[in-house]
Prior knowledge:
Blueprint: E1 3-8, E2 12-18, E3 25-31, H1 35-49, E4 53-58, H2 74-87, E5 94-98, H3 102-113, H4 120-135
Parallel strand pairs: 1-4, 4-5
Antiparallel strand pairs: 1-2, 2-3
Amino acid sequence: MRLMALDIGERRIGIATSDSGLLATPHSVLHRTTKKKDLARLQRLIEELGVERLIVGMPYSLSGDAPVGTEIGPQGRRIRRFTEALAKNLTIPFEYFDESYSTADAEAKLTASGRAGIPLDAAAAAIILQNYLNSSSIS
């Protein structure tokens, strides 16, 4: 099953894929322009790659009275609105997955491996997707 993960930021969207359901690979970075253009570019990429499930990194709040991993703040609400707009034109399922520390983890792994050529946003999306793959059994 081909999966795609998105690490949605205000200026860039990191993209990662997995063909095997075992390993996530950084794919690319979409530099944001307008919401309409960003949605069209993502939809086109999803179709071109034959993606069967979309995983969207969600920045759950680490503070507050709600259980960890359930409360979202302003950035999470922006991501939810963007994802819902994207989903209106998709025929594949999508789900949110906790993106906590994905950028910091990606930066540490890139530094440790000496792989400076991989864009940080794409690597963060790969961390989100790999964590998703590690935590679920995909059929």
